[in-house]
């Protein structure tokens, strides 16, 4: 029995591997940083894996050690909350390729004693899932009561159900997709080019010098726009200037929305690695669950016993409801038990991280139905 008396026990483990990657490489050793909440039952049947999004981390429901901010899903995870740590053993791992303690470009290559940088192997969403499976094996967890994720976390949840169907009893997929569109890839490429155009990038070899903060900030600004909705931006900022008497023309942050985006960009550079941003966005772009299963999405779920809950938001233009409907249609074609709802929210794609009580009720009801 694993008993975490403290709420949000931070851990880091080095697994010998090797981890076989989709690229054909065998990666070892594999470091995984993770947090656990709650107690693993004697029968090990109450484990829930929560998967984070692109710029997220393992600090799911406890304070971030670097920023001091609350965990990114404290309203969803905790005692008596929709994902109830009073009854479930909840695991959240920093994904492979990231920079919050798991193996990534900033990690030290044992063969050279220097950071991997761009020598880190190319990774996929399925590689991230395989690394999580290695962690669960280490923890003694065979079957997950549920895997839950939003955005890139939802991609991981879908990949879990397709890659390890016998290990997943239920999957909650929120504001996500089974593959990136050309537009999704285009937005990511703008961000990657912003990073690589920064003189400080130095072909990824910047760890002993200054990081490409300006390029990464621009990448974050561009991406952040896609996480919001036009209605939300208009309501929050409109065309308001910084000061009532601001009348001069120029290129300072005259509009409030400009100042907001610049703040988002620079704050991001304090906690994230530029090379990790390149690798993870590329992994998302490569993700195509249908292509992984003979070109037909339904094939990914043939014969599965996993229950699915698919949730979208009406103002999400990054992964619009049509993407979720395509997943639901594939699930139904495969005979998989699946429920679907489109929620109304002014928050756009980021709604899954914000205060949407209807989402809390749906997740709580779905999790309770599986007990």
Automatic annotation (TrEMBL):
Q: Which reaction does it catalyse?
A: L-homoserine + acetyl-CoA = O-acetyl-L-homoserine + CoA
* PANTHER family named in the record: HOMOSERINE O-ACETYLTRANSFERASE
The UniProt annotation places substrate binding at 220, 350
What protein family is recorded?
Belongs to the AB hydrolase superfamily. MetX family.
- Molecular function per GO: homoserine O-acetyltransferase activity
> Under what name is this protein listed?
Homoserine O-acetyltransferase
EC number(s) from the headed UniProt entry: 2.3.1.31
Listed under subunit, the entry gives: Homodimer.
Protein localization: Cytoplasm
Q: Which UniProt keywords apply?
A: Acyltransferase, Amino-acid biosynthesis, Cytoplasm, Methionine biosynthesis, Transferase
| Pathway info | Amino-acid biosynthesis; L-methionine biosynthesis via de novo pathway; O-acetyl-L-homoserine from L-homoserine: step 1/1
Catalytic machinery residues = 151 (nucleophile), 316, 349
Its biological function?
Transfers an acetyl group from acetyl-CoA to L-homoserine, forming acetyl-L-homoserine.
Which ranges carry the AB hydrolase-1 domain? Answer: 46-354
